[in-house]
From TrEMBL:
One of its GO terms (cellular component) is BRCA1-BARD1 complex. Signal peptide: none annotated. PANTHER family: ANKYRIN REPEAT DOMAIN-CONTAINING PROTEIN 39-RELATED, BRCA1-ASSOCIATED RING DOMAIN PROTEIN 1. It comes from Dimorphilus gyrociliatus. ANK repeats lie at residues 46-78, 79-106. This is Uncharacterized protein. One of its GO terms (molecular function) is ubiquitin-protein transferase activity.
Length: 106
């Protein structure tokens, strides 16, 4: 059985890394602690998942990393917007095209 406080600590560290765009820490947490970090977690303040945040920021590296580790490209935020909606809204062509490709690949 997984220690809930340890999992919560990993999750908190992961969300802080996302907020600070700390790719190194995010990669370490995702790679070295599989199953202890939920990449599809919603930020209670913003209603966004890390993938939504990456799309809003136009951060292709973050988007690719999150999808590689299981981020759901179909998941809507609390306003009903998908990552694709946000990528189109911000006009970041690299992010938009990558999300479309991931949707096509299923």
């Amino acid at each position: 059985m997984m220690d809930k406080s340890a999992t919560t600590d990993y999750q908190k560290r992961f969300l802080e890394a996302v907020q600070n765009c700390d790719m190194s820490s995010m990669t370490e947490l995702l790679k070295d602690r599989p199953g202890k970090v939920n990449v599809n977690v919603f930020d209670k303040r913003t209603g966004q998942t890390p993938l939504h945040q990456g799309c809003l920021e136009g951060n292709i590296e973050l988007v690719q990393l999150l999808i590689r580790y299981g981020a759901d490209v179909r998941l809507a935020n609390r306003d009903g917007w998908s990552p694709l909606h946000l990528a189109c809204y911000t006009g970041n062509e690299k992010v938009y095209k990558y999300i479309v490709r991931m949707l096509q690949e299923g």
